[in-house]
Design a protein that fits this description.
single chain; mainly beta; OB fold (Dihydrolipoamide Acetyltransferase, E2P); five-stranded mixed β-barrel; 2 helices; 5 strands
Length: 155
């Protein structure tokens, strides 16, 4: 008989306990190099509720994980650290962020309930009123205001 821990939600992650076990989709992954410091990998993970968290993979663990971490793939992850998200610029509004450690384990597994995309829109009125998180990086979706058809006569 196998007794396994239940999966936790991203919204519940905090620095009060260890270990955590989550099911997630990697929705974005990129490499950061800020000389003279060594580079590292960053990711955004999302669970089936659409909640997101930022993850850092230090250079020491980068080589171990780079072949196994694939954007838009779903995984079970456990044994990672959770810290307050004190980064100057954040990619997620979650109060915490994750960091892979030497004991982190991941297993790719199909979780069709985890959406590929989850959009969070901000009303223009809120932006104009200054009602937004100034240290949060966001995507901008452009709006077409009007289209004009122009015809030219050839002489």
């Amino acid at each position: 008989m196998s007794i396994s821990r239940p999966f936790e939600l991203i919204r519940d992650l905090n620095d009060s306990k260890h270990p955590w076990k989550i099911t997630v989709r990697i929705i974005d992954i990129w490499y950061v190099q800020l000389p003279p410091k060594p580079g590292h990998m960053e990711m955004i993970l999302m669970d089936y509720k659409g909640d997101k968290i930022q993850v850092s993979v230090k250079r020491d663990e980068f080589n171990q994980w780079r072949e196994h971490l694939i954007e838009n793939t779903t995984y079970v992850m456990h044994n990672f650290n959770v810290f307050h998200n004190d980064l100057q610029f954040k990619t997620c509004s979650h109060a915490y962020r994750m960091q892979f450690i030497a004991g982190t384990t991941i297993k790719d597994k199909d979780f069709p309930d985890i959406p590929q995309f989850e959009y969070v829109f901000k009303k223009f009125s809120e932006i104009l009123a200054g009602n937004f998180q100034t240290d949060l990086l966001v995507d901008i979706i452009e709006v077409v205001d009007k289209m004009i058809l122009v015809r030219h006569k050839l002489l």
